[in-house]
């Protein structure tokens, strides 16, 4: 056994020695090769041979690999490309040469750059594409893992297409007039503050990459693919995402409308002016100012946080908290397990809250006029505590609890018919304006006319409060 390891070690050392001898042979003998491997040391510049006039071309496609790309403007009327190669290392023979291949097709010019690649460094290698500033072109750039840059304030681009695996594209100056079609994968696309946009339509495909347009005003934004990417936008029109499985986060300063239906994504939008449709299986939703027609916002597992809501809104979360800080219109809200906290603003035009699927948690509502709040009637022993502060009583209001406590405080000047009932829970009703001043603790069905003629049997404004085994409390604002 010892002899085996002795000879095995000798063989390994011989192979290692032969390997380094081969490397030295490739290094010192120019144009040599072993097993289809050769050594390169490039320090050259290649230029696009053909002359292509701006008037003859409408679209330019540049296809390369990992060399950095610079797109610059020129006052010439010719489209020019230069490649500065500075590669060093070992490559396969078929991958050792630098070449530029133009392929004109009508008014579309495709320029393919073949770069030396393998076990080699790129050094200071890069590609420069010169575009005449006298004309706007459609531009398509495709590379693998490169840094791409546009920084020419005189350069105007119509439609821009970018495809990469894992790189970065910075537009620091210039004008984008048309559509952005971006297949980012793991790469990053940045639009700088000095770039002029024109409410451009954007199509995004991203895995774990990033789209950064925090200085830009865009048009319709369509997210066609998103695994766990980051999307940051200053302002846009409608943003659309309809993907069964996605992730990451979306942050927008201002959008006209949202139609987002996807899975594990965090959504944060400061201002929405024309309503929102958001349906997530998981993720948090935060909106500062919501205006427009009826909005429908839902997340299966996650929190919903809204500040100002000018439009009527439907809010749903299976497992998560829902908060509305300054509601100005009707709210329909449901969460099975979580806390609900809603406060109506002083200038609200509709102070109504409806909720009917509570199972576990707490609901707090302030400055409301109409309530229809119930625990889930299909579930038993719903442990939901309720704390309701009513500025007035409008219509037929219902607060129906189960095992959790229920507390309702009503503006003392409100006029309504109050009815209470509790199967097993403690009852404490104390209203200053009633003949029963001093309160009552009767569990059975009890009716009280508040600030109306005691002889009235019916009235347009009623408040029904009930529990099964949870405590029941009803007060006016002077006795609360």
Question: What would you say about this model in short?
Answer:
With 480 residues, this protein is mostly beta strands.
How would you characterize the overall build of this protein?
By secondary structure, this protein is mainly beta. The protein is built from 1 helix and 40 strands. The protein is elongated, with a radius of gyration of 34 Å.
Q: Strands, helices and their partners?
A:
Blueprint: H1 2-28, E1 33-34, E2 37-41, E3 44-47, E4 52-53, E5 59-63, E6 68-74, E7 78-85, E8 88-92, E9 99-105, E10 108-114, E11 118-121, E12 126-132, E13 137-142, E14 147-163, E15 168-176, E16 180-185, E17 188-196, E18 200-206, E19 210-226, E20 230-242, E21 249-264, E22 266-272, E23 276-282, E24 285-290, E25 295-301, E26 304-309, E27 313-319, E28 322-327, E29 331-344, E30 352-358, E31 360-368, E32 370-375, E33 383-390, E34 396-400, E35 406-410, E36 416-422, E37 427-430, E38 446-450, E39 462-467, E40 472-476
Parallel strand pairs: 5-10, 5-13, 6-12, 6-14, 13-14, 14-15, 14-16, 15-17, 16-18, 17-19, 18-19, 19-20, 20-21, 21-22, 21-23, 22-24, 23-25, 24-26, 25-27, 26-28, 27-29, 28-29, 29-30, 29-31, 30-32, 31-33, 32-34, 33-35, 34-39, 35-40, 36-39, 37-40
Antiparallel strand pairs: 1-2, 2-8, 3-7, 4-7, 7-12, 8-11, 9-10, 36-38
